[in-house]
Amino acid sequence: MGGNSPCASCKLLRRRCTKDCTFAPYFPSDDPQKFAIVHKVFGASNVSKMLQEIPVQQRADAVSSLVYEANARVRDPVYGCVGAISYLQNQVSELQMQLAVAQAEILCIQMQHDPVVMPTPDIIDSDQKSYFLQNEFPQYLNFGSSTNVIHDSLKRENIFGHDMVS
Ligand SMILES: [Zn+2]
After folding, report:
1. Residue 8 alpha carbon to ligand 1 centre in Å
2. What pLDDT score does 147 carry?
3. How many domains does the chain contain in total?
4. Are residues 108 and 127 in the same domain?
């Protein structure tokens, strides 16, 4: 900060900016709005107390946080930056739900394309062939056996009839 020109805080508060001014390193005179909004929301004396209570190496982060929170409070007087945080949290959970739905859809499509989980396609083919052969044979056997049953019953009737006749 140039020797004589006071920092934005001291200019707004109409006081002499000393060498050990708490605000000077963080509120330069070329950005008066930065201090104005922090002063409006938190009050200059509260900001001064907060800055003096924390280590010097953390003060720049604290000031940028205070500026961010003050801007959020002016935009949203009820919720402030909590409104922005909860809006973003809602967005995250909505997107997580969309992602879960999309992953479930992918799983469904994959299962429709590959219903049988087998190591190689060749094994699937031969297994499916033997599966169909095994399924077709019992059908013929059942049909044959059912006709055999009919034949048997006819034979029995014939035998019975023969018995009746004889
Ligand atoms: Zn100052």
Report:
1. 7
2. 45
3. 3
4. no
Whether 4 shows a pLDDT value over 50: the answer reads yes
Residue 162 CA to residue 83 CA, distance in Å, equals 99
Q: Do 87 and 54 fall within a single domain?
A: no
Query: Is the residue at 1 inside a domain?
Result: no
Distance 45 CA to ligand 1 centre (A): 13
At 5 the pLDDT is 86
- Could you tell me the distance, in angstroms and rounded to a whole number, from the CA of residue 134 to the centre of ligand 1? 93
How many angstroms separate the alpha carbon of residue 5 from the centre of ligand 1? 9
Other beta carbons less than 10 A from residue 53's beta carbon = 9
Place of tokens 């907060």: 50
pLDDT tens digit sequence for 113-132: 887 655 555 554 555 554 44
CA of 80 to the centre of ligand 1 (A): 27
For residue 19, the enclosing domain spans 8-75
* Residue finishing a domain among 47, 75, 103: 75
pTM beyond cutoff 0.90: no
* Cα 141 to ligand 1 centre (Å): 102
Q: How far is the CA of 38 from the centre of ligand 1 (A)?
A: 14
Would you say residue 3 lies in a domain? no
Burial tier of 101 (Cβ tally within 10 Å: 0-12, 13-18, 19+): exposed
**Per-residue pLDDT reduced to its tens digit, 49-58:** 999 999 999 9
* Residue 66 shares a structural domain with residue 87: no
Q: Has residue 88 been placed in a domain?
A: yes
